[in-house]
Amino acid sequence: MNRFYLSIDQGTTSSRAIVFDLETGGVIAQAQKEFTQFFPQSGWVEHDGEEIWQSVCNVANQALLQSEKAGVNVVGIGITNQRETTLIWDRKTGKPIHRAIVWQDRRTSKQCQELISNGLEDEIADKAGLVIDPYFSASKIAWILDNVKGARIRAENGELAFGTIETFLIWRLTNGDKHISDATNASRTSLLNIKTAKWDKRLCELFNVPMPLLPEIVDCAGNLGNAHTGLSKQLPILSAIGDQQSASVGQACFHPGSVKATFGTGCFVILNTGGRILKSSNRLLTTIGLQLNQKQTYAMEGSIFVAGAVIQWLRDGIGLLKDAKQSEKIASELASNNGVYMVPAFTGLGAPYWSADARGAIFGITRDTSPADFIRAALEAVAYQTNDLISAMAQDGMRPTNIKVDGGMAANNWLMQFLSDIVDIAVERPSQLETTALGSAMLAGLADGVFSSIENTASSWRLEKKFTSNMTPSNRRTLTENWSEAVMKTRFSIT
User: Fold this and answer.
1) Is 3.30.420.40 the CATH number for 251-430+462-495?
2) Among the CATH numbers 1.10.520.20, 3.40.630.30, 3.40.50.300, 3.30.420.40, which is that of 4-242?
3) Within the chain, which residues score under 50 in pLDDT?
4) By CB neighbour count within 10 A (0-12 exposed, 13-18 middle, 19+ buried), where does 366 fall?
5) What would the pLDDT profile of 429-453 be if each residue is shown by its tens digit?
């Protein structure tokens, strides 16, 4: 094979660049850089688009330099990204007109509630496959246009461009030659009709988004432009895909019924439904999992807003941890959770509840409660929330037989065992946990002709450890019932 690809993984808290050897799935070079999180008001989360661009150039060039020193020739780029995060920029200068509004941001709750009150939930869900929620891009676009002076008129006149982060990066890398969005990212805006894979005029009208803002929709793999700005080396851009869909590719979830769970800042569970658009009765999302040769593979998705972020809060917010890795040892040393349940609804609850106004809570505290109990409760909450999603998928008619896991928290053996215990199915962890970045590299290899089909890319996936359930049904039932009660109290408490 001897062809190596640079994956740019632009995430919520950091930008990373990884060069992969697809023959082994191994990492040749890598670099990572965190960037600033802005919290202007309660429930608001923003990023600086220019800082993201500089961080991407920084890590990409570091990885290219490492590769050069190792005698490795990088031949193409794959891009994967935080999805719903929204940027609008000037087409002439490429400069953002406002900070990026992050997927976690809840500022448009009122606007979304108005759409719900107007009885538009079913129509939007039927077209977009999504619930009405501030999570998605459309309401964020409208907010920027309505809150930046002159922006709406300029958008209608075609002077401005919208994009999720991959669109912005491709624009910058090609110096404005390409204004494109891959179908997976486009399907997270609430503006794409997932049946046609095209922008929908009616959806744009409902969310008050001018269509001249929108990029061209393209496949996830192909010739997506030539990167000739910001990098030390000119390279073709060969793939673009949303981070969770990319992880699904990296986990080789190519067959209907296959499931992956990525534990990063949040947790995202994606179930491959093949060519079938499966509408959930449990408020799970229907989305495009992959588009190749203008053909869509669909997926059902559940999103947990807070996963790794709760451990980050324990470390940085209240100082209960010096290092996130400590959580595994601390949790394992407790015989039980001592009746403590944490619902980390810091920015509301995602699927299957979709409660934007819910806030975090801890239940079962006594005089005997220790910091260790809080840490274990935080880890358990991630497993309980994942179980909520898997249960919802089962109720919708597709229960998986195993879950492939990745992301930083997947390295926690105690958590993965507890997850298997609670969900009562096998949990499989690959040898390469960087599956989000790996997925975009695999697609780049596919576009470059290294693989003859998407299924053949599965050769890059290898099992590292399998966890199987050993919890009694009665214990599982007690824990999940107590969790459900805690969630109910959180959702319906006075805020």
Assistant:
1) yes
2) 3.30.420.40
3) 495
4) exposed
5) 998 888 899 999 999 999 999 998 9
